[in-house]
Every structure is written in structure tokens, then in C-alpha cells.
Amino acid sequence: xxxxxxxxxxxxxxxxxxxxxxxxxxxxxxxxxxxxxxxxxxxxxxxxxxxxxxxxxxxxxxxxxxxxxxxxxxxxxxxxxxxxxxxxxxxxxxxxxxxxxxxxxxxxxxxxxxxxxxxxxxxxxxxxxxxxxxxxxxxxxxxxxxxxxxxxxxxxxxxxxxxxxxxxxxxxxxxxxxxxxxxxxxxxxxxxxxxxxxxxxxxxxxxxxxxxxxxxxxxxxxxxxxxxxxxxxxxxxxxxxxxxxxxxxxxxxxxxxxxxxxxxxxxxx
Length: 269
Hints:
single chain, mainly alpha
């Protein structure tokens, strides 16, 4: 459900629906309860309600802060993984300049095929939450085949060969890490605590009575807006490859890898 929302609705629309919906629910609930029980406006239960709100608010705030920080860290880690993978591919492309033309051309073709497979085939699958190793397996194996079949003949070639092999191994490791991150999502228990906690805390604000309706509505709406915005952050950060705030595939098109996207770039098999 969250993937569909992130991939089909803009962040602004999600904000209107989630934050606006939470505020509307809070205001409507508060007004209706006040009309049904006018005595709430006297605030005779405010002492008890205030203590309960403070206790629940503190616990819920800690939970939300933990969830948001965890998801933000996950997003930053995913961006680092993507940048590292693209950098390793670019370094292999630069190392290949020291190899004979046949080896260099074969490696270039494999790398070109790889970055196109990542961006054009694997990325859409990751956005949908169902990444597949097979989308890039053939091109990665082709790069390994080129290096495994090559026997460097000079000390200079040996140095660049060792570097290229090391970077290619790193690409394989980063690819696995990237795909693993694409499959990650907030555990169900934390989802229940984050979204279910809002269903407990927001109605509690209805019980805090104030003589003036306008002041009470402002109080309830402010709490609901803060909670709604926090839930919005949880939603948009939960999936690092989905939504407008998702990780971009731009690193695979920049720097030394830009030539693989030029019309005259290395051909792809």
C-alpha cells in the first residue's frame, strides 16, 4: 500500500491527505465531542487528561523520533551504497584504459550494459519493491569473464588489473547491498506503534477542555498537524527507492560513466 502511494502520489498530495486528514479528523472529533458533552468545556478533567497526554506524548514522541532517525539513516546509507557502486564502475572504466584494445572494448561493453541495466531495468523493479538480481547478472558476469580471461603482461598492466578486479568485486558487493536495501521496510510492529499511536494520542486531545472553542480547536489542530507531519516523514522515508524523495540513479550517468549514455558511446550487447 505504501509503495503504491509513494509511486502514484506526489509528496505534496501525500502531505495534504495525511496531514490535512489528521487535522480534519482531530478538529471534527473535538467539535463533535464538545457538542455531545458540553461539560468538557469546563475543563474539570484537565488535570488527569494533562498527565495522561504528557505521558503518552513522551512515549509516542520517543518512538516516532527513533523511527524517523532510523529511516533517515537508512536513506543516507542507501545513497552512499549507490554512489560507491557507481564510483567503482567508473574506476574500472578508467583502469581499462591501460589494457589492450580488445580487453578494453570488451570491458567497456560489459560496463555500459551494466549501468543501463541498473538504471533502465533494475531501478523500476526496486521502485516497486521487488528487485531482481537477474536484471544485471548477465552484464556483471560478462565483466568478470573479460577480466578472468585476461592475463596482464607488463607490471603496469598488472597494477591496473589488480585495481580493476578489486573494484569489480566491490561492485558485486555494493549491488547486493543496494538490492537488500530496496527490500527493506519498517517492521510491522513499528508501523503499528507509529500509526496506531496516533489513533490513541489524537483522540486524547479531545478530552482537554477549554472554555473558548477557537482555542481548543487551535490546540487540537496543532497537535494533530505535528503528528500528521511526523507520520508523513515515516511514510516517505520508509522506501528509499520509491517516491519523490527516493535515491536517484544519477550517479550511474555522471563522470566517467556519462560516455556510456552518449549516442556514440560503447555499444551494448
